[in-house]
Amino acid sequence: MSPANVGYQAPSVTVSSSLPKRKLDSSVLIVPVVNGDDDRAAPRVVANPFLDAKAVGEIEAALESLDAKGGAEQVTRVVVPSLPVSSVLAVGLGKQRDEYDVIRRAAGVAARSLNGAETALTTLSDIDLSATVEGLILGAYRFTDFRSDKTAPKDAGLRAITALTSAKGQNDVAQRAADIATAVATARDLVNTPPSHLFPDEFAKRAKALGEAAGLQVEILDEKALEKAGYGGIIGVGKGSSRPPRLVRLTHKGAKRKGKKVALVGKGITFDTGGISIKPAANMHHMTSDMGGAAAVVATVVLAAKQKLPIDVIATVPMAENMPSATAQRPGDVLTQYGGITVEVLNTDAEGRLVLADAIVRAGEDQPDYLIETSTLTGAQTVALGARTPGVMGSDEFRDRVADLSQRVGENGWPMPLPEELKEDLKSTVADLANVSGSRYAGMLVAGTYLREFVPEGVQWAHIDIAGPAYNSGGPWGYTGKGGTGVPTRTMFAVLEDIAANG
Ligand code: BES
Ligand code: ZN
Ligand code: ZN
After folding, report:
1. Tens digits of per-residue pLDDT, 329-360?
2. In whole angstroms, what is the distance from residue 53 CA to residue 70 CA?
3. Could you tell me the pTM of the whole model?
4. How far apart are CA 486 and CA 186, in angstroms?
5. 379 lines ligand 1 (CB under 6 A)
6. Residue pair 136/113 in contact by the 8 Å Cβ criterion
7. Cα dihedral angle (23, 29, 35, 41), rounded to 10 degrees?
8. Which residue from 269, 376, 378 has its CB within 8 A of the most atoms of ligand 1, so it is best to mutate?
């Protein structure tokens, strides 16, 4: 498998102002319906200029005969022979609504219910084109790279989207939404690729291929270069594995000479056993997602280049596999982080902060205005905020800006503090710092406090803990399937766009 022939191929998107004249094979028309939030009322098709009264009447009669409901995110498929599609999929909104996330989620739910149809047409886009395209592509995502013919889906999945809208000149809007969703799919593909196949060197190669295809400058440091330059955190974490660590740097140069400079850093632990401080067996396989931050960072810098953002974006991505072995680091070892701070490794399972500290110091050498770092850093994040709410820490102002933008794009990051007193808990008896505190309290904030020690003075920074949100181990919902979610790609891209627009 080479990077070129794996991964999800997003469907094509066409914007149109009318239904096709001739019947399309393997096609579905997705139509939003409402019932005024009253499940006893029959669903009504949301008014649109593409379906005449006869077609609307036929759809509503078919829905009524099935006793369909029209509540939020309920889907019902009906056959309407007079329409040029194989079937109609009604998706409920409850009340008539137009909020971005409501439409995106409705589109996502519909896309997960396509039953193998290759073409989706929709009038949902007449409410919000961008939300519809994003939701359809994200909802239609699937990961089939490792299925043999025995269990591979028989159909090719969603290949084409026709988004109906009466507004003119909307191609760019649709294209931007498709590009963002495709970047999220890239991050999902990387997370979903199992640790047998995505180890540091392979991850670095894929990041390079993706980066070069988008015109980025790419630099890869291998284990010898890392050792020589003093990346003690990345070397320490990686040395228990037969598959050596890497540090990947991807640079996008904005066209403007005086544009802002943003550093992105993402945790790329391709598998986290815990090392010698080994994790329990139950659910250890979820640790295939421990490179979710790195995946999102790679996808985001590639997207920034594709969108030609007029700012410099430099991604610094440490990649390592945290394994227990005769060559692994031990609890009690002392290592020297890149830049010279010494650390007593009291728990080898707190490895993310060790690779990130090196990467943050390296990213700081570029003198960025902003630094966004994201990682599946602590189980404590899920204890505090659950599986769908990233914790955002960092410099107060920038943290709030990142959390606010995260909420606007539907990834719902929430601001969290870094209380000064937690630093006390990271004191070591032998080194400058310990990598864990002795306390059971505020594990997410302690990890953020550790990272803060490595952020250069004057840099606005945000740390996004996505331990739960990077990987959906529950059932599918909205536009999110099982497995890799691609969070927080959309948050980081929104922040980059906001910096490009407002400084
Ligand atoms: N990769 C884990 C964090 C994690 C937990 C991610 C659950 C996704 C889901 C991280 O390396 C880790 O093991 N952290 C420890 C830190 C502790 C030893 C201070 C944890 O959370 O238990
Ligand atoms: Zn760990
Ligand atoms: Zn980890």
Report:
1. 999 999 999 999 999 999 999 999 999 999 99
2. 19
3. 0.97
4. 8
5. yes
6. no
7. 40
8. 378
